Amino acid sequence: MSSRHEKAPTIQDVAREAGVSRQTVSNVLNRPEIVRPETKEKVDAAIARLGYRRHAAARRLRTRRSSTIGIHLDPYSGGISGAVLDRFVHALTEHASERGMRMIVYAARSAEEEIERLGELVEGGEVDAVVISGTFHGDPRTRWLRERAVPFVSFGRPWGEDDVGDPAHLWVDVDGAAGTREATRHALQHGRRVAFLGWPTGSGTGDDRASGWREGIGAEGDPTSPRVEGIEEVNAARAPIEPTTGDLAGACPF
Q1: How confident is the model over 203-241, as pLDDT tens digits?
Q2: CATH code of the domain occupying 68-172
Q3: Which of 43, 78, 92, 236 has CB 3.0 to 4.6 Å from 28, enough for a Cys bridge?
Q4: From the CA atom positions of the chain, what is the Rg in Å?
C-alpha cells in the first residue's frame, strides 16, 4: 500500500491513482465487460499498487444482496449417500468461492422445520439462493420456494411426470435407473439371477432404481426374481431379506 494512505484506500483513491472517474472504477469492479481493455489495465494496476480491497459489507448493503447461498445438510447416514453429498457440498463451496459467493449450512430434522429455517434466512436477507437435498414426492419445500420466488436448485429431482423434458425446477441427481439397469445386465451376462434390494415402494429413489432393474432383466432375466424392500443401512436391511433367503439362492441382490 502507498505510504500516502494511512487508512484503507477507497474507490475514489483508486480513481485518482488511475486517472479515471469513480464510475469507471465501479464498472471495472462490477461490469468489466463494458470497459475498454486498456482502461481496465490501468485500473487493475492502481488497485494492485494501493492494495485496494472491496468492502464486502458496504457492497451487500448497497446491492441488498448477501452473496450467500444456503444449503441444507442432511443428518449423516454413512454409506455411499453420505460420501456423495460430502463431495457435492465441497465442490459447490469451491465453485461458489470462485464466483465471490459464500455458503451457509443450516440443519433441519423435517421438511416443515426446514421451511421455518428458510423463512428466517430469506426474510433476514441472509441468503440470495438455496440448495436443497433429499427431495421427495409432494415436497413442500419446493412449493414454498417457488411461491416466494426464491432462486433454488435441488440435489434430487422434482419427482414429477416429466423431470427431464419439463422439470418443475432446476435440479441435479444421480441416474439411479441407468446405474441399476447396467449393473443388472452385467450380472445377467455372467449367468446370475438378479434380485433387487432397495427402499420401499413409494420412495422416489427406490422406485427409480427398481425401474432400471426391471428394464435390465427384460426378456433375458428371470421375471420371478424378487424385489425385497428395506432401507439404506446394511445391517437394518437384513430383516426384510432373511425371509426370502431361499428365493435368493444363487441370486445377485442390489
Answers
A1: 788 888 888 888 888 856 666 666 666 555 555 555 555
A2: 3.40.50.2300
A3: 43
A4: 26
